[in-house]
TrEMBL record:
Gene3D superfamilies: 2.60.120.200, 4.10.410.20, Complement Module, domain 1 (2.10.70.10). GO terms for cellular component: membrane. Residues 86-173 form the MAM domain. Residues 1-24 form the signal peptide. This is Sushi domain-containing protein. Keywords: Disulfide bond, Signal.
Amino acid sequence: MANLSTILVLFLCLYLSIVMKCDSLKNQCPLFRVENGRVRLIGRTARIICDSDSKLVRGRNRMTCVRNQWNYSELPVCAKIKETYLACDFESSDNRFCGWQNDFLNDVDWLADKARSLLYFIGRHVSPGSSQYFSGNYISLDTRTYGIGVTGRLLSPSIQPVNDSQICLMFSYVVRSRKSLLEDTIERPTLSVTFGGVPLWVTSVGEGRVIIGLFKLNISSTIVIEGKQCEAAIDNLVVTEGQRCTAQPYEEEDNSCQDNCGIKKTTRSCSCDWECFENENCCLDIEKTCPYIKPLEDIARLYFTANSTTTTTTTTTTTTTTTTT
């Protein structure tokens, strides 16, 4: 009888080990790392532990692997407590715009929107881009029923300067051309970004995920995202600094500034930043693809005066990436 009990126990242990192993194989999620922190895996659960000088600023501190996917789409981010980090996915009902706000001089305002929205019934709904770039709630701008020169400007919270790191802006976007009901011609749509009065980036029809390096200033300044003569939508706005600014949303083309405006390249033969003119290593297509990237002395002459309290530094490590279709 004792031998039979032993056999049954061994059989049960073997059965459970096989079931648990199969369950584990069915729930294998991709491994990931967290900068300024670590990931502790316990079965199908991942626990995120930030370093003592950092805090969790995005994502959750616990994630579960379900059918080969983590149950939270955004990977966690641990940022050093003094680092610049401002993220907005427009999902919060209490603070939808996360400190961003419409310019009070706007012709048309940016509005909270989603795939199925009441804005559809008042003619202000803008459909999002592909699910690769958009999810849930987002914000949109629609100027299709207005005349020439109609704009909508979105203003960021004040961005403080940093001395030894670069700051960048990331967001998903879609821009479409719309024929004005008041005009017989289709006006050129534009979605542009400026920082402290310095233009950084512009695009027209297309969609993608962009990383834009901010021109380095020595005072706090505001980012302005402006849509003009267009139907546009934006999602997942992030202002951050450091190594996260160098992460590319897609494979970039070598020896070209296409979708790389403002990037200072150190691992290839040409560069696309403001300093490349002095270093004589600009990519050949910089003037065509990056019209706002000019020599530092031209930037100072165009956008700053001798009496201005705003000055630029001579070191501008900046990153810009765009995706257009």
